[in-house]
Amino acid sequence: MTLPAMADAVAAHADWQVFLVSGLVLGTTGGLIALAFRGEKPPSGFREAIVFVTAAWFAFSIAGAIPFYSGNLGLGFTDAFFEAASGLTTTGSTVLTGLDSFPPGILLWRALLQWIGGIGVIVLGIWLLPALRVGGSQLFALESSEKTTRPYGRITPFVYRLLILYGGLTLSCMILYLICGMSFFNAVVHTMTTVSTGGFSTSDQSFGQFQGTAVYWVATVFMLLSSLPFLYLIRSLERRRFTPDIQVVLLLAFVTSASFGVFFFERYVVHDTPFHMFTLAVFNVVSIITTTGYAANDYLRFGPAVIVIFFVLTFFGGCSGSTAGGFKMFRIAILTAYIHALLRRMIRPHRIAAPRYQGQAVSDNVLEGVLVFAVLYTGSFAGFSLIYMMLGLDLETALSASGTALANVGPGVGNTIGPSGTFQSLPDAAKWSLAVEMILGRLEILGGILLLTPDFWCD
What we know:
There is one protein chain. The chain has helices at 2-10, 15-36, 46-70, 77-88, 104-132, 155-179, 184-195, 214-226, 230-239, 246-266, 274-289, 304-316, 329-347, 364-390, 395-406, 428-442, 446-450; strands at 356-357, 360-361. By secondary structure, it is an all-alpha fold. A hairpin with a 2-residue loop joins strand 1 (356-357) and strand 2 (360-361). The chain is globular, with a radius of gyration of 22 Å. The chain starts with a helix and ends in a 9-residue tail after the last helix.
C-alpha cells in the first residue's frame, strides 16, 4: 500500500493517509502473527493447503477492501469487498464509475491487486491444483520425459524463472505502451492489468480512451502471451524454440475464427476503415477469451449474433497454467479427445480407442478430474444463475453475471453489466454471491467445494 500512498501524496490527495495507515496496521498485524508463531512448524498436508489457500484469498480480499472502504469513494463494505475480490481474482468486474476523475492512488491500487493476483493464480494453478486432479499442470504428466507433475522438482528454481518471465512481460509491455503514446501512469496501470489478464482501467471508456491501432495490437499480443501456459513459455525460451501445443493451437484457432465472425457482423454497423474495424474485433475477442475484460467499444450493439459469440467466449478461457481464467483450453482438448474416442468405440465396440493428448494416452485420473470439473463447472454456473434470478435479476443478466464471475472475465452482456455498464446497481446479496463465485472460480471450484464436505474435516 506504500506505492498508492506515494502516488496520492505526489498528487496532493488526502487518501495517501488512508493507504499509509492501512498499510501500517495490516503490516503490524501480520508481523505480530508471524512472531507469535515463530519456530512452530505448520502442518503441510493436503487439507491444510486447501484451507490456507481458500482462507488467504478471502483474507487478502478483506485487506484489499480497506482502502476502498476507508477512502473518499463513499463505498459500503459490500462494494469495497466486491471490488477487491474482483481485482485479486483478476476478474475485472467493477462497481465504480467516474474513473477518469479518480485519484491516482485508487487507480494504482486496483492495478496492483490484479498484478499480484495474476502471479498468485499461476502458482496456485501449477502447484496446488494438480493435487485436486483438476489443474492443467497435469498435462506435464502426459509427457514421457516427465516423472512428476511438478516441473523442476523443487519450487525455488521454478519460482525464480516464473518471476523473471512475469517481470519481463511486465517491463516489455510497459515500454511498448509508452512508445505507443500512453502517459507513464497509464502505461504502468494498464501493463499490470494486461499481463495479469485483469482488465481494470483508468477510464470508464476502458481502452476506448486511446487513439490509433498500435496500442490495441500491443495489448492484444500481451493478453495472448499472458494466457499461454507459463511453463510452456519458460521451456520454449530455454530451448529457444516453440513446439506445437494443442491448447495453444486451440486458443489461436478460436481467436481467429471468432475475430472474423465479429468483423463480419461489425462492418454492417460500424462505418470505419476495414483495418480499424478488424483491429477492434480482434482486440475485443482476445480480451474476452483471455478473461481480461477490456473493452474498445460497446460490441453488444453489433447484433444478436455478436452477443452470442461473446457470451460463448466467456466460458472458454485461456490455457492452463496462465493468468487467464475460464474453463481452459486444456480441458476442452481433453474432453474433445474423450468424445472422439467414445464415438470410435461406439462404431466399433471391440476397438481400443483411448483419448490422447499430444500423442500420449490420457490417464484415467486426469480424465476423471476433467470430467468432474466439467460437471461442477456447469452445476455452479446454473446454481448461481438461479440465485441471481431469485434475487431479482432478469434471465439475461443472471446468466451473464454467473458466467463472467465463474470464468473471471469481468464484463457481461446486457445493458446492466455489459461493457458499457457496471455491477453497482445489483443488490448487495448478489454482489456477495458474485464475490464468492469469483473466488470459487479462481480456486477451480473443487478446492472450495471440498471445504463443504464432512469427510474433509474428519480423519
